Amino acid sequence: MSTSKEEEATLLPLFETKVARGRVAFKLYSFTILIGIVSIWLYRLIHIPCIEEQGKYAWILMFFAEVLFGLYWIITQSARWHVVFRYPFKQRLSTRYEDKLPGIDIFVCTADPTLEPPILVINTVLSLMAYNYPPEKLSLYLSDDGGSELTFYALFEASNFSKYWIPFCKKYNVEPRSPEIYFAQKIDLNEPNFSQEWTSIKKLYEDMKRRLDSAVEYGSIPKEIKNQHKGFSEWNSQVTKQDHKSIVQILIDGWNTNAVDVQGNRLPTLVYLSREKKPGIAHNFKAGSMNTLIRVSSEITNAPIILNLDCDMYSNDPDSIRDALCFFLDEKQGHQIPYVQYPQYYNNTTKNDIYANVSFATYQIELAGIDGFGATLYVGTGCFHRRESLSGKKYSGNHQIKSHSVKDNIKGRTIEELENSSKLLANCSYENGTLWGKEMGLVYGCAVEDIVTGLTIQCRGWKPVYYDPRKNAFQGVAPITLDIALIQFKRWSEGMFQIFFSKYCPFIYGHGKIKLGAQMGYCIYLLWAPVSLPTLCYVIIPPLSLLHGVPLFPKVSSLWFVPFAYVFVATTLYSIVEDLMCGDTLKGWWNLQRMTLIRRTTSYFFAFIDTMMKQLGLSQTSFVVTAKVVDEELQKRYENEMMEFGSSSIVFVIIATLALLNLFCLGLGIKKVVFSDLEILEKFVAQLIVCGLLVMVNLPVYEALLFRSDKGRMPFSVLFKSIVVVSVVCLIPMFWDLQTL
Ligand SMILES: O=c1ccn([C@@H]2O[C@H](COP(=O)(O)OP(=O)(O)O[C@H]3O[C@H](CO)[C@@H](O)[C@H](O)[C@H]3O)[C@@H](O)[C@H]2O)c(=O)[nH]1
Ligand SMILES: [Mn+2]
């Protein structure tokens, strides 16, 4: 798309970047905290008990914890140093580019028909096919790592249903365009024409859903349906998830003028893809599937812009493609932008977000703060890419989005020819001896392929953009049980810590290529796993020391008490105010504190251990896909914001043990110090506060251990095991006296 040089100079920009206000105040505040932290370190160093005194090792561990917390805090400041917000101008885009909009290839990934039900997948697909965008420029590719005939069948049904759904959406401008979500809404049906159409489309949707449900239930698809499409012949009894040939089926060939909906409008292209799998050959999880998508789509439609989504992330805004294009097509800055990342919001979060799935401050401030240093994180879904930057190309000054046509790309080949040539690109052996997974496409070998890929793109000179619009562009399904929420964080924190240890460590790999602020910004996340260690110290040592009468903090009347109190109170107030300003509730903030504690003491801790094992070559990268299915009872408890435990996993034993340890020590500690003289009480106030807060944060854990009777309670075995551990730790004085040996 070329405009002349003079024209370019006079054009208004397609997007604007504004710097957040209040940065001077923030820097001053940040400086006072730093002084507080350094004072705390000094206090620890000066007052450490000598060899003969009790508690020396407890103090050393506390010092270790405070140093790590302090250093980590310094790293986190980068994300608030230079926060920027982006504002695209869709109107200007339309006036300038409406007749030369680029093609968009949308990639949706799914991996398992049980964990990710086909009906969920096609709802996402339908919401995307119904974008307000010229259909002949829109193509949708579903990558099915489950290799499931049911998912293919669902997509086939969706291709038929779309002929009714898309014109209905566009005619009445309905939102959101995921049928399931749309029909679950309360709709005003006063207008007779609309009401009639609404009813008939809803019936079509429900009939389709019923057919799918029964196919899932019987595990097979009726013969008369199979006869309707040649694609079903790809499946026979030998095809399994782990072992099958490449399958590529073009369900709608959008370049064909005969591919139309019931009103005669063109339809977007729709392609089903399941790359070849062979036992024993690494398939590199989502990264592998994305790379296959990149190749196959380049064979068929080859659009210059790619939108990448997980199968649960439906489009919540039918106009968001245009927002994203404002960035890519901006005449001045667009050529430098490799991707535009949107935050990952969910449609099923409860009022106070019990598992803290949405972290308001992270989405609205931290990610925008990292963007301020030119280093937006790619988070794997809700991201528009420039195809060029995904193929390993270095930024080299002038990259324009060329208007291209599918017709030229397919060079008159038939559907069968396109399918056959695409299949070759989806074969296991295709990547052998190529740079795919190394310098081309998404990077292999890491459970957070997204983060590491984004980093490599930036280090090649590109400047991505983070955009958090007022109306969520995409919404996904958040985990609604504690163990799934923790599995997800374990995968993330492990993958990220692994990056820190690899050749991609931002401080080394990014040195001289991205700004220091950006390197630090990455490390806020890459260092989640090791933050588990100081957290564990702070959760275990204060209660035990209280129990054994070892003071850890200065007396209330001492001047040294000030930095402790200041750092704690100021950072807490800051985070509350920030969170509330971002739209969270006070209870939501409190839930986030609990989840942070639980994640750090379980997910991050296991991630830390597993990363160490991997460094030693003892284990391998895996990717545990999260379930997106729910049963009704569970859904009820979730909506009532009750935490879901229910299984006797080791994770819950840890959570229960830490909670009971603090409760027990607080109880005995109060007995011991509060009823003695004031002098002693003064020495233990801070410790009592630490334990007291930990107990308060853990209230739902005690409830689940002792008072609940529903299925989501902690199993009795967890209670039993954790009581045994707490008793051993507390009652055998040996453990504690080791320090005096
Ligand atoms: O072998 C695999 C495994 C997963 N997936 C897909 O990857 C997506 C993400 O999996 P999910 O279990 O939902 O993980 P999340 O933690 O929700 O995913 C986040 O984190 C991942 C990295 O850990 C990124 O890949 C995702 O894009 C990002 O949304 C889903 O669509 C899966 O179908 C595949 O296509 N193939
Ligand atoms: Mn997901």
Automatic annotation (TrEMBL):
A Pfam family recorded for this sequence? Cellulose_synt
Is Cell wall biogenesis/degradation one of the keywords UniProt gives this record? yes
Cellular location of this protein? Answer: Endomembrane system
**What's the domain of life for this entry?**
Eukaryota
**Protein's UniProt keywords contain Lipoprotein:** no
Query: Where is the chain membrane-spanning?
Result: 28-46, 58-75, 522-546, 558-577, 645-664, 684-706, 718-736
Recorded topology in the membrane: Multi-pass membrane protein
InterPro entries noted in UniProt: Cellulose_synth, Nucleotide-diphossugar_trans
Q: Which UniProt keywords apply?
A: Cell wall biogenesis/degradation, Glycosyltransferase, Membrane, Transferase, Transmembrane, Transmembrane helix
Q: What name has this protein been given in UniProt?
A: Cellulose synthase-like protein E6
Q: Which organism is it from?
A: Penstemon davidsonii
